[in-house]
């Protein structure tokens, strides 16, 4: 089952391009072609011009531009609210240039690039609800990757984010929080189902945990 996160539209650059959304960065770089750093004057158009000849380009941390023809393994769609840093060279103050370890990704094709998520052993194909569980004091019940979105959080979005991050367990908390892990912390306990009653910020018909409570799922 494939999930897609809701992606926010940004101001278009001057040249022909398609905005694919906010994507995760990886330690070795999601785009491994040319790069340009300018924390004072970067714009979307500047990055696109610099990356002429490449199929993809992404802006990160306000002033970083990276080019490439394909995404490296481990880069995949993130929550749109992860990309909120303004482009310093944009006089209109409407352009967004990624975020910390997040790329505002553009390209020449109309369709988004293929992603290569981290592998799972065994392969996972569906989700299974495991109940409402308590958060852990001073730590996290699910201590892997995490995401946050006041506007886009859904069960499917969190599940896809955690699966592509290499985790098979995921939990949603306080309407807008997503946590991933290899399993629940031993100090997390099963709570009353009524404790998980907060609507997901991106889909009000779905439940995304509660205060210090996680709606927990597992990929199986």
TrEMBL record:
| Protein keywords | Repeat, Signal
Could you say which residues form the signal peptide? 1-16
SMART domains reported for this sequence = WSC (SM00321)
**A Pfam family of this chain:** WSC
Residue ranges constituting the WSC domain according to the UniProt record: 16-109, 126-220
> Which PANTHER family does the entry mention?
WSCD FAMILY MEMBER CG9164
Q: What is this protein called?
A: WSC domain-containing protein
Protein's organism = Chaetomium fimeti
């Amino acid at each position: 089952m494939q999930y897609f996160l809701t992606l926010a539209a940004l101001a278009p650059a001057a040249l022909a391009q398609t905005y694919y959304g906010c994507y995760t960065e990886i330690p070795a770089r999601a785009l491994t072609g040319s790069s340009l750093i300018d924390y004072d004057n970067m714009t979307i158009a500047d990055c696109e011009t610099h990356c002429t000849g490449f199929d993809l380009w992404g802006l990160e941390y306000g002033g970083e531009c990276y080019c490439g023809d394909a995404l490296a393994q481990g880069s995949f769609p993130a929550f749109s609210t992860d990309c909120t840093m303004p482009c310093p060279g944009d006089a209109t103050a409407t352009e967004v240039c990624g975020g910390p370890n997040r790329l505002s990704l553009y390209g020449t094709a109309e369709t988004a690039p293929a992603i290569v998520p981290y592998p799972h052993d065994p392969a996972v194909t569906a989700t299974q609800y495991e109940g409402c569980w308590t958060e852990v004091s001073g730590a996290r019940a699910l201590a892997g990757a995490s995401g946050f979105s006041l506007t886009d959080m859904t069960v499917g979005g969190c599940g896809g984010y955690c699966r592509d991050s290499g985790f098979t367990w995921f939990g949603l908390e306080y309407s807008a929080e997503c946590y991933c892990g290899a399993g629940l912390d031993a100090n997390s306990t099963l709570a009353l189902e009524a404790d998980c009653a907060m609507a997901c910020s991106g889909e009000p018909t779905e439940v995304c945990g509660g205060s210090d409570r996680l709606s927990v799922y597992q990929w199986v």
